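Appendix C reproduces, verbatim, an entry submitted by the partner laboratory led by Prof. M.T., so that reviewers can inspect both the input and the predicted structure.
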Amino acid sequence: MNIRQSISALGAAVTVALAGTSHATELEVTHWWTSGGEAAAVAEFAKAFDATGHKWIDGAIAGSGGTARPIIISRILGGDPMGATQLNHGRQAEELIEEGLLTDLTELAEKEGWKDIVNPSSLLDACTLDGRIYCAPVNIHSAQWLWLSHGAFKEAGVDVPKNWGEFVAAAPKLKEAGLQPLAMGQQGWQQNLAFGTITVAVAGMDAWTEVAVNKNAEVAAGPVYKEVFEAAAAARELAKGSNVQDWNLATNLVITNKAGGQIMGDWAQGEFQVAGQVAGEDYTCLPGLGVNEILDTGGDAFYFPVVKDEETKKAQMELASLLVSPEVQVNFNLKKGSLPVRGDIDLSSANDCMQKGLKILADGNVLPSGDMALSPDSQTQIEDLMAEFWSTDMPAADAQASYAAIIEAAE
Protein backbone atom coordinates (compact mmCIF):
# COMPACT_ATOMS: atom_id res chain seq x y z
CA MET A 1 0.00 0.00 0.00
CA ASN A 2 1.48 3.41 -0.98
CA ILE A 3 1.30 6.61 1.06
CA ARG A 4 -1.73 7.94 -0.83
CA GLN A 5 -3.61 4.67 -0.23
CA SER A 6 -2.54 4.65 3.43
CA ILE A 7 -3.83 8.18 3.95
CA SER A 8 -7.08 7.28 2.20
CA ALA A 9 -7.53 4.17 4.35
CA LEU A 10 -6.73 6.09 7.51
CA GLY A 11 -9.27 8.72 6.56
CA ALA A 12 -11.91 6.06 5.99
CA ALA A 13 -11.14 4.49 9.35
CA VAL A 14 -11.41 7.83 11.11
CA THR A 15 -14.71 8.49 9.36
CA VAL A 16 -16.06 5.13 10.50
CA ALA A 17 -14.83 5.71 14.05
CA LEU A 18 -16.39 9.14 14.20
CA ALA A 19 -19.62 7.79 12.79
CA GLY A 20 -19.64 5.12 15.50
CA THR A 21 -19.22 7.69 18.27
CA SER A 22 -21.23 10.58 16.84
CA HIS A 23 -24.10 9.78 19.17
CA ALA A 24 -21.97 9.04 22.21
CA THR A 25 -23.79 10.32 25.28
CA GLU A 26 -22.69 11.12 28.78
CA LEU A 27 -25.10 9.63 31.30
CA GLU A 28 -24.97 10.59 34.96
CA VAL A 29 -25.77 7.56 37.12
CA THR A 30 -26.50 8.03 40.83
CA HIS A 31 -26.09 5.28 43.42
CA TRP A 32 -24.91 4.74 46.98
CA TRP A 33 -22.34 2.01 46.34
CA THR A 34 -19.21 3.48 47.92
CA SER A 35 -17.58 0.73 50.01
CA GLY A 36 -14.64 -1.18 48.58
CA GLY A 37 -16.65 -4.17 47.42
CA GLU A 38 -19.49 -2.02 46.09
CA ALA A 39 -17.13 0.24 44.15
CA ALA A 40 -15.51 -2.78 42.51
CA ALA A 41 -18.94 -4.06 41.48
CA VAL A 42 -20.34 -0.81 40.08
CA ALA A 43 -17.13 -0.39 38.08
CA GLU A 44 -18.28 -3.41 36.05
CA PHE A 45 -21.40 -1.51 34.99
CA ALA A 46 -19.37 1.57 34.09
CA LYS A 47 -16.85 -0.46 32.09
CA ALA A 48 -19.57 -2.20 30.10
CA PHE A 49 -21.44 1.03 29.37
CA ASP A 50 -18.28 2.91 28.35
CA ALA A 51 -17.49 0.06 25.92
CA THR A 52 -20.61 1.01 23.95
CA GLY A 53 -19.08 4.40 23.15
CA HIS A 54 -21.18 6.23 25.71
CA LYS A 55 -19.77 7.61 28.96
CA TRP A 56 -20.82 6.62 32.48
CA ILE A 57 -20.63 9.70 34.72
CA ASP A 58 -20.45 8.33 38.22
CA GLY A 59 -22.75 10.05 40.70
CA ALA A 60 -21.92 8.11 43.86
CA ILE A 61 -23.58 9.50 46.99
CA ALA A 62 -21.71 8.73 50.19
CA GLY A 63 -23.71 7.07 52.95
CA SER A 64 -26.48 4.52 53.00
CA GLY A 65 -29.61 4.33 50.90
CA GLY A 66 -31.40 6.26 53.62
CA THR A 67 -29.05 9.17 52.96
CA ALA A 68 -29.03 8.87 49.18
CA ARG A 69 -32.71 8.29 48.40
CA PRO A 70 -33.98 11.70 49.57
CA ILE A 71 -31.26 13.39 47.48
CA ILE A 72 -32.14 11.32 44.41
CA ILE A 73 -35.87 11.88 44.76
CA SER A 74 -35.42 15.60 45.46
CA ARG A 75 -33.41 16.06 42.27
CA ILE A 76 -36.00 14.29 40.15
CA LEU A 77 -38.89 16.21 41.70
CA GLY A 78 -36.94 19.47 41.37
CA GLY A 79 -36.45 19.11 37.63
CA ASP A 80 -32.74 18.19 37.76
CA PRO A 81 -32.90 14.49 36.88
CA MET A 82 -29.90 12.24 36.43
CA GLY A 83 -29.76 9.85 33.50
CA ALA A 84 -30.27 6.78 35.66
CA THR A 85 -30.41 5.98 39.33
CA GLN A 86 -30.19 3.05 41.68
CA LEU A 87 -33.09 2.43 44.03
CA ASN A 88 -34.26 -0.75 45.73
CA HIS A 89 -36.92 -2.50 43.71
CA GLY A 90 -40.06 -2.15 45.72
CA ARG A 91 -42.31 0.71 46.70
CA GLN A 92 -39.71 3.47 46.93
CA ALA A 93 -40.46 4.82 43.45
CA GLU A 94 -44.28 4.65 43.52
CA GLU A 95 -44.87 8.39 43.88
CA LEU A 96 -42.35 9.26 41.17
CA ILE A 97 -44.06 6.84 38.79
CA GLU A 98 -47.49 8.22 39.63
CA GLU A 99 -46.19 11.72 38.88
CA GLY A 100 -45.01 10.57 35.45
CA LEU A 101 -41.35 11.25 36.23
CA LEU A 102 -39.87 7.80 35.50
CA THR A 103 -39.50 6.20 32.08
CA ASP A 104 -41.73 3.29 31.10
CA LEU A 105 -39.48 0.35 30.16
CA THR A 106 -42.29 -2.03 29.19
CA GLU A 107 -41.52 -2.04 25.47
CA LEU A 108 -37.85 -2.89 26.07
CA ALA A 109 -38.73 -5.51 28.70
CA GLU A 110 -41.17 -7.23 26.35
CA LYS A 111 -38.75 -7.10 23.42
CA GLU A 112 -36.01 -8.76 25.48
CA GLY A 113 -38.30 -11.19 27.29
CA TRP A 114 -37.54 -10.04 30.84
CA LYS A 115 -40.56 -11.90 32.18
CA ASP A 116 -39.05 -15.16 30.97
CA ILE A 117 -35.55 -14.61 32.36
CA VAL A 118 -35.99 -12.65 35.61
CA ASN A 119 -36.14 -15.08 38.54
CA PRO A 120 -37.98 -14.92 40.87
CA SER A 121 -40.80 -13.13 39.08
CA SER A 122 -41.44 -11.00 42.18
CA LEU A 123 -38.42 -8.89 41.22
CA LEU A 124 -40.06 -7.73 38.02
CA ASP A 125 -43.42 -7.46 39.77
CA ALA A 126 -41.78 -4.99 42.16
CA CYS A 127 -40.82 -2.86 39.14
CA THR A 128 -44.37 -2.93 37.83
CA LEU A 129 -47.22 -0.51 38.47
CA ASP A 130 -50.58 -0.73 36.73
CA GLY A 131 -49.17 -3.34 34.37
CA ARG A 132 -46.22 -1.22 33.22
CA ILE A 133 -42.54 -1.91 33.98
CA TYR A 134 -40.43 1.01 35.26
CA CYS A 135 -37.10 -0.44 36.36
CA ALA A 136 -34.38 -2.88 35.42
CA PRO A 137 -33.63 -5.23 38.34
CA VAL A 138 -29.91 -5.98 38.59
CA ASN A 139 -29.46 -8.28 41.58
CA ILE A 140 -31.01 -10.21 44.42
CA HIS A 141 -29.82 -9.12 47.82
CA SER A 142 -30.84 -10.96 50.94
CA ALA A 143 -30.49 -9.71 54.49
CA GLN A 144 -30.61 -13.00 56.39
CA TRP A 145 -26.92 -13.80 56.88
CA LEU A 146 -24.57 -14.23 59.83
CA TRP A 147 -20.91 -13.69 58.92
CA LEU A 148 -18.36 -15.36 61.21
CA SER A 149 -14.63 -14.80 61.64
CA HIS A 150 -12.62 -18.03 61.81
CA GLY A 151 -9.69 -16.16 63.35
CA ALA A 152 -11.77 -14.69 66.17
CA PHE A 153 -13.20 -18.04 67.21
CA LYS A 154 -9.78 -19.66 67.00
CA GLU A 155 -8.42 -16.96 69.34
CA ALA A 156 -11.33 -17.54 71.72
CA GLY A 157 -10.66 -21.28 71.70
CA VAL A 158 -14.08 -22.37 70.43
CA ASP A 159 -15.33 -23.96 67.24
CA VAL A 160 -16.90 -21.80 64.56
CA PRO A 161 -20.66 -21.86 65.29
CA LYS A 162 -23.05 -23.64 62.97
CA ASN A 163 -26.14 -21.66 64.01
CA TRP A 164 -27.34 -18.69 66.06
CA GLY A 165 -27.71 -20.74 69.24
CA GLU A 166 -24.08 -21.85 69.11
CA PHE A 167 -23.02 -18.26 68.39
CA VAL A 168 -24.83 -16.97 71.49
CA ALA A 169 -23.30 -19.78 73.56
CA ALA A 170 -19.80 -18.86 72.35
CA ALA A 171 -20.20 -15.15 73.11
CA PRO A 172 -18.77 -15.34 76.67
CA LYS A 173 -15.57 -16.93 75.36
CA LEU A 174 -15.25 -14.15 72.79
CA LYS A 175 -15.62 -11.55 75.54
CA GLU A 176 -13.03 -13.30 77.69
CA ALA A 177 -10.62 -13.09 74.76
CA GLY A 178 -11.23 -9.34 74.54
CA LEU A 179 -13.21 -9.64 71.32
CA GLN A 180 -16.48 -8.04 70.27
CA PRO A 181 -19.11 -10.82 70.03
CA LEU A 182 -21.46 -9.12 67.54
CA ALA A 183 -20.36 -6.27 65.27
CA MET A 184 -23.18 -3.77 64.69
CA GLY A 185 -23.16 -0.40 62.96
CA GLN A 186 -25.05 2.29 64.86
CA GLN A 187 -27.65 3.08 62.20
CA GLY A 188 -31.35 2.32 62.25
CA TRP A 189 -31.40 0.47 58.94
CA GLN A 190 -28.67 -1.92 60.12
CA GLN A 191 -30.43 -2.56 63.41
CA ASN A 192 -33.72 -3.07 61.60
CA LEU A 193 -32.00 -5.51 59.24
CA ALA A 194 -30.72 -7.50 62.22
CA PHE A 195 -34.18 -7.48 63.78
CA GLY A 196 -35.77 -8.71 60.54
CA THR A 197 -33.19 -11.47 60.22
CA ILE A 198 -33.78 -12.58 63.78
CA THR A 199 -37.52 -12.48 63.10
CA VAL A 200 -37.30 -14.86 60.15
CA ALA A 201 -35.02 -17.21 62.10
CA VAL A 202 -37.14 -17.26 65.27
CA ALA A 203 -40.69 -16.76 64.03
CA GLY A 204 -40.43 -18.30 60.57
CA MET A 205 -41.79 -17.32 57.18
CA ASP A 206 -45.51 -17.67 57.97
CA ALA A 207 -45.45 -15.34 60.97
CA TRP A 208 -43.23 -12.83 59.16
CA THR A 209 -45.57 -12.83 56.15
CA GLU A 210 -48.62 -12.40 58.36
CA VAL A 211 -47.10 -9.30 59.92
CA ALA A 212 -45.08 -7.65 57.13
CA VAL A 213 -47.33 -8.52 54.18
CA ASN A 214 -50.79 -8.88 55.74
CA LYS A 215 -50.19 -6.18 58.39
CA ASN A 216 -51.57 -8.41 61.16
CA ALA A 217 -51.01 -6.38 64.32
CA GLU A 218 -52.37 -9.18 66.54
CA VAL A 219 -49.55 -11.49 65.48
CA ALA A 220 -47.06 -8.64 65.92
CA ALA A 221 -48.30 -8.18 69.49
CA GLY A 222 -48.58 -11.91 70.21
CA PRO A 223 -46.42 -14.64 71.75
CA VAL A 224 -44.42 -15.52 68.62
CA TYR A 225 -43.15 -11.97 68.25
CA LYS A 226 -42.57 -11.82 72.00
CA GLU A 227 -39.88 -14.46 71.44
CA VAL A 228 -38.50 -12.40 68.57
CA PHE A 229 -38.13 -9.26 70.68
CA GLU A 230 -36.56 -11.23 73.52
CA ALA A 231 -34.04 -12.72 71.07
CA ALA A 232 -33.35 -9.23 69.71
CA ALA A 233 -32.77 -7.96 73.26
CA ALA A 234 -30.24 -10.77 73.80
CA ALA A 235 -28.51 -9.83 70.52
CA ARG A 236 -28.43 -6.22 71.69
CA GLU A 237 -26.32 -7.29 74.66
CA LEU A 238 -23.87 -9.05 72.34
CA ALA A 239 -23.57 -5.89 70.22
CA LYS A 240 -22.71 -3.58 73.11
CA GLY A 241 -19.30 -2.06 72.58
CA SER A 242 -19.58 -2.07 68.79
CA ASN A 243 -19.21 1.66 68.27
CA VAL A 244 -18.73 1.89 64.51
CA GLN A 245 -21.30 3.64 62.33
CA ASP A 246 -21.15 2.23 58.81
CA TRP A 247 -21.96 -1.37 57.95
CA ASN A 248 -18.69 -1.96 56.12
CA LEU A 249 -16.73 -0.84 59.19
CA ALA A 250 -18.63 -3.45 61.20
CA THR A 251 -17.80 -6.01 58.51
CA ASN A 252 -14.15 -5.01 58.80
CA LEU A 253 -14.22 -5.94 62.49
CA VAL A 254 -15.08 -9.48 61.39
CA ILE A 255 -12.51 -9.46 58.58
CA THR A 256 -9.75 -8.36 60.96
CA ASN A 257 -10.77 -10.93 63.61
CA LYS A 258 -11.78 -8.25 66.11
CA ALA A 259 -15.40 -9.45 66.22
CA GLY A 260 -16.93 -12.89 66.17
CA GLY A 261 -19.75 -12.15 63.76
CA GLN A 262 -22.07 -9.71 62.06
CA ILE A 263 -25.67 -9.92 60.91
CA MET A 264 -25.62 -8.28 57.51
CA GLY A 265 -26.85 -8.75 53.98
CA ASP A 266 -24.96 -10.70 51.35
CA TRP A 267 -23.34 -7.51 50.07
CA ALA A 268 -20.86 -8.03 52.92
CA GLN A 269 -19.29 -10.67 50.67
CA GLY A 270 -17.85 -7.93 48.49
CA GLU A 271 -15.83 -6.65 51.44
CA PHE A 272 -14.45 -10.10 52.23
CA GLN A 273 -13.44 -10.55 48.59
CA VAL A 274 -11.68 -7.18 48.39
CA ALA A 275 -9.78 -8.16 51.56
CA GLY A 276 -8.66 -11.36 49.81
CA GLN A 277 -10.51 -13.67 52.19
CA VAL A 278 -11.85 -17.06 51.14
CA ALA A 279 -15.32 -18.30 52.08
CA GLY A 280 -15.14 -21.49 54.12
CA GLU A 281 -11.50 -20.87 55.06
CA ASP A 282 -11.25 -17.38 56.52
CA TYR A 283 -14.92 -16.84 57.22
CA THR A 284 -18.21 -18.68 57.35
CA CYS A 285 -21.62 -17.49 56.24
CA LEU A 286 -24.85 -18.80 57.76
CA PRO A 287 -28.02 -18.03 55.76
CA GLY A 288 -31.03 -17.63 58.01
CA LEU A 289 -28.60 -17.54 60.95
CA GLY A 290 -28.15 -21.27 60.36
CA VAL A 291 -31.61 -21.79 61.87
CA ASN A 292 -34.15 -21.17 59.14
CA GLU A 293 -32.55 -21.09 55.70
CA ILE A 294 -34.91 -18.64 54.08
CA LEU A 295 -33.78 -15.56 52.18
CA ASP A 296 -35.66 -12.47 51.19
CA THR A 297 -35.46 -11.34 47.58
CA GLY A 298 -34.82 -7.65 47.88
CA GLY A 299 -32.08 -5.96 45.95
CA ASP A 300 -31.29 -3.15 43.60
CA ALA A 301 -32.80 -1.86 40.40
CA PHE A 302 -32.17 1.05 38.08
CA TYR A 303 -34.78 3.61 37.20
CA PHE A 304 -34.54 6.13 34.39
CA PRO A 305 -35.99 9.61 34.92
CA VAL A 306 -37.98 11.12 32.06
CA VAL A 307 -35.77 13.46 30.02
CA LYS A 308 -36.37 15.54 26.87
CA ASP A 309 -33.15 14.90 24.97
CA GLU A 310 -33.64 12.11 22.43
CA GLU A 311 -30.01 10.95 22.47
CA THR A 312 -30.13 10.65 26.26
CA LYS A 313 -33.31 8.59 25.96
CA LYS A 314 -31.56 6.20 23.58
CA ALA A 315 -28.57 5.91 25.92
CA GLN A 316 -30.92 5.17 28.82
CA MET A 317 -32.46 2.27 26.91
CA GLU A 318 -29.02 0.93 25.99
CA LEU A 319 -27.97 1.00 29.63
CA ALA A 320 -31.20 -0.66 30.79
CA SER A 321 -30.63 -3.47 28.29
CA LEU A 322 -26.99 -3.82 29.27
CA LEU A 323 -27.72 -4.11 33.00
CA VAL A 324 -29.81 -7.23 32.44
CA SER A 325 -27.49 -8.81 29.85
CA PRO A 326 -25.86 -12.16 30.76
CA GLU A 327 -22.18 -11.13 30.80
CA VAL A 328 -22.80 -7.97 32.82
CA GLN A 329 -25.01 -9.85 35.27
CA VAL A 330 -22.21 -12.36 35.93
CA ASN A 331 -19.40 -9.79 36.23
CA PHE A 332 -21.34 -7.43 38.47
CA ASN A 333 -22.82 -9.98 40.86
CA LEU A 334 -19.60 -11.93 41.36
CA LYS A 335 -18.04 -8.69 42.61
CA LYS A 336 -21.10 -7.53 44.57
CA GLY A 337 -21.75 -10.78 46.39
CA SER A 338 -25.38 -10.72 45.30
CA LEU A 339 -27.31 -13.23 43.21
CA PRO A 340 -28.16 -12.50 39.56
CA VAL A 341 -31.69 -11.71 38.46
CA ARG A 342 -31.36 -14.02 35.47
CA GLY A 343 -32.14 -17.66 35.93
CA ASP A 344 -30.31 -18.71 32.76
CA ILE A 345 -26.66 -17.90 33.44
CA ASP A 346 -23.75 -20.01 34.69
CA LEU A 347 -22.39 -19.11 38.12
CA SER A 348 -20.36 -22.27 38.74
CA SER A 349 -17.40 -20.03 39.61
CA ALA A 350 -19.29 -18.46 42.53
CA ASN A 351 -17.86 -18.97 46.00
CA ASP A 352 -19.23 -21.10 48.84
CA CYS A 353 -21.56 -18.40 50.18
CA MET A 354 -23.06 -17.53 46.79
CA GLN A 355 -23.60 -21.24 46.12
CA LYS A 356 -25.58 -21.48 49.36
CA GLY A 357 -27.75 -18.57 48.25
CA LEU A 358 -28.26 -20.02 44.77
CA LYS A 359 -29.42 -23.34 46.27
CA ILE A 360 -31.91 -21.60 48.57
CA LEU A 361 -33.20 -19.62 45.60
CA ALA A 362 -33.49 -22.77 43.48
CA ASP A 363 -35.37 -24.52 46.30
CA GLY A 364 -37.84 -21.63 46.40
CA ASN A 365 -37.24 -20.83 50.08
CA VAL A 366 -37.66 -17.10 49.54
CA LEU A 367 -39.86 -14.29 50.76
CA PRO A 368 -40.33 -10.69 49.62
CA SER A 369 -38.21 -7.96 51.16
CA GLY A 370 -39.56 -5.38 53.57
CA ASP A 371 -39.12 -2.76 50.82
CA MET A 372 -41.69 -4.65 48.77
CA ALA A 373 -44.12 -5.29 51.62
CA LEU A 374 -44.10 -2.02 53.57
CA SER A 375 -44.34 1.60 52.49
CA PRO A 376 -41.26 3.83 52.88
CA ASP A 377 -43.04 5.67 55.71
CA SER A 378 -43.69 2.46 57.66
CA GLN A 379 -40.12 1.31 57.06
CA THR A 380 -38.79 4.61 58.40
CA GLN A 381 -40.93 4.33 61.54
CA ILE A 382 -39.64 0.82 62.20
CA GLU A 383 -36.03 1.87 61.60
CA ASP A 384 -36.44 4.74 64.07
CA LEU A 385 -37.88 2.34 66.64
CA MET A 386 -35.03 -0.11 66.12
CA ALA A 387 -32.43 2.65 66.43
CA GLU A 388 -33.89 3.54 69.82
CA PHE A 389 -34.29 -0.08 70.92
CA TRP A 390 -30.72 -1.11 70.08
CA SER A 391 -29.09 2.02 71.52
CA THR A 392 -30.97 2.09 74.85
CA ASP A 393 -32.24 -0.34 77.45
CA MET A 394 -35.81 -0.15 76.15
CA PRO A 395 -37.66 -3.24 77.45
CA ALA A 396 -38.49 -5.83 74.80
CA ALA A 397 -42.19 -5.62 75.74
CA ASP A 398 -42.27 -1.85 75.16
CA ALA A 399 -40.56 -2.19 71.79
CA GLN A 400 -43.00 -4.92 70.76
CA ALA A 401 -45.99 -2.75 71.67
CA SER A 402 -44.63 0.16 69.61
CA TYR A 403 -43.87 -2.17 66.71
CA ALA A 404 -47.39 -3.65 66.75
CA ALA A 405 -48.84 -0.11 66.65
CA ILE A 406 -46.77 0.70 63.57
CA ILE A 407 -47.93 -2.49 61.84
CA GLU A 408 -51.55 -1.72 62.72
CA ALA A 409 -51.30 1.68 61.01
CA ALA A 410 -49.12 0.47 58.12
CA GLU A 411 -50.18 0.91 54.52
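The mean pLDDT is 91. Additional entries are available on request from the coordinating office.
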